[in-house]
Amino acid sequence: MHVGGEQVMMKGMETSNRLTGFSLALFSAAVVLGGGNFLAVRFSNRELDPFWGAGLRFGIAAAVFVVIALALRLRWPRGRQLFDTAVFGVLSFALFYALMYWALVRVTAGVATVVLAVVPLFTLLLAAAHRMEQLRRRAIVGSLLALAGIVWMAAGPTELELPLGALVAMLGAALCVGESVILAKRLSGNHPVITNAVAIPTGAVLLLALSMAAGEQWVLPRQDEAVWALVYLVTLGSVGLFVLLLLVVRTWKASATSYMFVLFPVVTLLLGAWLADEPITIHGVIGSALVMAGVWFGALAPSARQPAIPAASPVAVPETP
Fold first, then answer.
1. What does the longest C-alpha to C-alpha distance in the chain come to?
2. Which of the residue ranges 98-102, 127-131, 199-203, 314-318 would you say has the lowest mean pLDDT?
3. What's the pLDDT tens digit per position in 19-43?
4. Which of 2, 28, 68, 162 to pair with 198, CA 20 to 30 A apart?
5. Domain hosting residue 125, numbered range
6. Which residues lie below 8 Å from residue 238, measured CB to CB, with a gap of 6+?
7. Is 12 a domain residue?
8. Is the pLDDT reported for residue 278 higher than 70?
9. Total domains, the chain
10. Does any domain span residue 318?
11. Cα dist from 305 to 40, 222, 311, whole Å
12. What residues contact 296, with CB distance under 8 A and at least 6 apart?
C-alpha cells in the first residue's frame, strides 16, 4: 500500500514537471513575441495613426478568432462570463493598446517596455486588493525601486527623453494590463480562442470609435516596413501571443503570468538596436537595471515567489477543443 502511494506520488510529480516545462516553453515564446510587438508597433506607427493602427490590427485578428471559434464549434460565454470577457477586452485591448499606441508615437520601444516592467508589481498589488494573493512588504519595496528607475529615465538625456504625458499613459496601460491578467485568471476555464473571439472584437470596436472621434485617417499601409509590421502584429503578435498568454495563466498565478513584462525590455532593446538603430546608452542601462532590480526583488526572487500550484491541489491541464 505504501509502495503504491509512492508510485502515485512519483507519477504526479512527473506530470507536474512536464506541465511546468510546457508552461515555461509557452511563457518563453510569449516573451519573445511580446517583446517584438513593441518594435512592430513603432514601425506601423510611422504610416498609420495610432488608434487606427491598433483598431485595424485587432479588427483583423478578431475575424481570425471568430472564424476559428465557429470552425471548432466552441460554446460562447453567457451571462456573467460574457460580461467579464467583454470587460477583459476593454481593459486588455481597448484601453491598454490605446494608451500604448499613443505613447509609442512619443517614446522608443525600448523605453516603453522598461516602463511596463512594473506590470508584475502592479499585478501583485491589484491581486492583493482582490484578495487573490498575499501582499508582501518586499513587493512594496520592489515597486518603489522600479519607480525610481522610471524617474531616473524620465530625467535622462534627450535620446531617452520620456515626456510626462507618455509616462502617465504607459503607467495607466500597466494598470490596465495588470487588472486584465487578474480577470484572465478568472476566465481561464474557458477556451482561449473563445475568450479572444469575444474580447478582441470588443476592443477593436472601441479603438475604431476612438480613431473616428480623433479624426484619424483610415488608410492601409504602403511602406514595406509598415506592411510587414502589421502582418506580424495580426498573426504572431495577436493570434499567437494572446493564446499563449491565456494558456500560461491557466496554470500560473496572475502575478506570475505578468512576469513576462519584465523580460520584454531584453527582447525589445536588442531588436530595437538591431532593426531600428535605437540607442542603448549607459543612462538607459542604469534606469533599466533599477527597474529590473525592483521587479526581481519584489516579484521574481525565489524568496518572493509562492508556488504557482499548491502541492495538494490537482494540476490544471489545458483544455482541448
1. 73
2. 314-318
3. 567 778 888 899 889 888 878 888 8
4. 28
5. 20-304
6. 57, 58, 61, 200
7. no
8. no
9. 1
10. no
11. 32, 47, 15
12. 142, 262
Residue whose cell numbers read 495588470: 178
Residue 281 makes CB contacts below 8 A (sequence gap 6+) with 157, 159, 160
Taking CA atoms, 81 is separated from 86, 244, 246, in Å, by: 9, 20, 15
Angle, to 10 degrees, between the axis of helix 164-186 and the axis of helix 241-251?
Answer: 60
Q: Distance (Å, rounded) from C-alpha 135 to C-alpha 154?
A: 28
Tell if the pTM clears 0.85, that is, is over it.
Answer: no
pLDDT digits (tens, 9 = 90+) for 94-103: 999 889 888 8
Q: Output the pLDDT for position 236.
A: 94
Helix (H) or strand (E) segment spanning residue 147:
helix 137-154
What are residue 284's phi and psi, to 5 degrees?
Answer: -65, -40
Q: Does residue 15 sit within a domain?
A: no
Phi, psi (rounded to 5 degrees) for 248: -65, -45
Domain membership of residue 147 (yes or no) is yes
Give the mean pLDDT of 55-80.
Answer: 95
Q: Is it the case that residue 8 has pLDDT exceeding 50?
A: no
Question: 165, 302 in Cβ contact below 8 A?
Answer: no
Q: How far is CA 5 from CA 11, 18, 286, in A?
A: 10, 20, 52
